[in-house]
Amino acid sequence: MSTEAETAPKAETKPFQAEVSKLLDLMINSLYSNQEIFLRELISNASDACDKLRYAAITQPELLGDDPKLQVTIKIDKKKRTITVADNGIGMNHDDLVENLGTIARSGTAAFVDQMSGDSDKDVSLIGQFGVGFYSAFMVADKVTVTTAKAGENTAWRWRSEGAGEYTIEPAENAARGTAIELHLRRGMNEFLEPTRLRTIVKTYSDHIALPILLTGDDDAPETMNDASALWTRPKSDITKEQYTEFYHHAAHAFDEPWLTLHNKAEGRIEYTNLLFIPSSAPFDLFHPDRKHGIKLYVKRVFITDDCEGLVPRWLRFLRGVVDSEDLPLNISREMLQNNPVLARIKTAVCKRVLSELEKKSTKAAEEYAAFWQNFGAVLKEGIYEDTEYRDRLLGLMRAYSTHGDDLVSLKDYVGRMKDGQSEIFYMTGEDVAALRKSPQLEGFVSRGIEVLLLSDPVDDFWLQSVPEFEGKPFKSVTQGGIDLSKIEGGDEKKDKADAPPEEGVGELIQAFKLALEDAVKDVRVSDRLTDSAVCLVADEGALDMHLERLLKQHQQLSSTAQKILEINPANALISSLAQRAKASPSDPAIADAAHLLLDQARIIEGDPVTDPAAFARRMTDAMARGLTGG
What we know:
The chain is an alpha+beta fold. Helix 10 packs antiparallel against helix 11. The chain has three domains: 9-226, Histidine kinase-like ATPase, C-terminal domain (Heat Shock Protein 90, 2-Layer Sandwich); 233-374, Ribosomal Protein S5, domain 2, CATH 3.30.230.80; 398-629, Rossmann fold. The relative contact order is 0.06. The strands form four sheets. Strands 1-6-5-4-7-3-2-8-9 form a nine-stranded mixed beta sheet, covered by helices on one side. A six-stranded mixed beta sheet has the order 16-15-18-17-20-19, sandwiched between helices. The protein has a five-stranded mixed beta sheet with strand order 10-11-14-12-13, with helices on both faces. It starts with a helix and ends with a helix. The chain has 22 helices and 23 strands.
């Protein structure tokens, strides 16, 4: 017969996820100047656990049992050199411990860890985009013990680790609902055993927590250290900048400062309060498909969810903070939220408020707004693509680099600088603005002083296909055919040279190139967009933009690509020499080789591979040999 000891769960020792080990090493060795934030992080997690229990208890009031007053308790034991941060919130079971404390269950974690360089200063800045959470305990502790019992379950569990690559989980004696985290302090951390020091930390970082935070010593009566009221319910005049910042740190689990704070209360048909923040730096997982929205929904100060899809559109997913409604029912389910008219009105009001504040910033603080756009512009452009309701306002907020200078420009500024005779907004998309500036396709535009937008976000290729125009001016890719630059006022000697009649032999050269290239291109023609380079590729009029076509092909949304047009520059010395040679001997094999080499050159400039590397290498070798021998 089996004994109870034989059937009872035994202790398990498990390795940390690789990302956790690297994160722990960073925090233990690099974050020495921010050690006090461990308490902020643990209190923040304890507050979240209590919020989750309060929400669960709406439909399961028995979970609160005989302990309905939710709170966080900090206990000091100077003899043992321990601090214990405890809460009576939702608690954890065995699987929760493995998932929450053994792994980092966040989207894009591996990519985040890969960015760590080993440079302490850079990595500390990077970790501010990630948040530190529970693992911050190891900044001050050489051993951490977590004892926890999940609300509604009978089994308690204990988690232990010294932060050195592994942790142990085992059953614990009966424990009260909630979680107690005991930190055994490292040498040199005695300051955190002093009540005065802990009071200062709590007042600085956690005064806004809407639960009592109690401090107890060996013989002392519990002392409440914080205001214990929801910050967003207080009048704005009573809240300091520092308090807003610390609430942002709590809400976003971030290190940076908020770039913009929006705190307002709506009254009327619907009543709600929002306290929202735009970060000053982009979170590491901003573009991860599984990233959650960063706004917590409360109803009458009771936490409901931190994953409410209907609260703000996905193109505002960088927002952090809270929305607290007076009109939604407390027992509303997440399914009911999806089609709730009250939530829909809140969403509309929040969107309009955020856009209004961004519009103010864009006109009154252009440099600050440019920094915001660098962080979050690509996200707002998703709204241009998918949200017709706010498209016009988002187009007004859009900024882009251009050939006009080194600063970001607005579409309104661009239109105001358009040349006489220019009816279209010219743009070029690609992987990198610096590379775009060097493109041969821009030469004719730049020589005439015609501004071109340089767009390098992946979303650019897609919103441009769904937005036909801005202020009556259609968008036009410079990689497409059908652009007549001669009708646009402006230019210089290079422009005049480009517009000059074709030099002698150019017609013969074009015919020789067409014969040599056969079906490799759709056409060969003289270019009015080139002033320096020998050749470039362009799409046919009405065809897809070349960069968009490449993207679609890479993502297997196109099975084949359309043939391109090879444009040649008669003013280029090489083309001029080839033209003279073609006039004298159109069937010269060197001309056919030159045609293929120039086509491959144009492909390389566009970022495309050459179709036949071996033939390319042979022709290049032969051309170099002829050049060196004078053949």
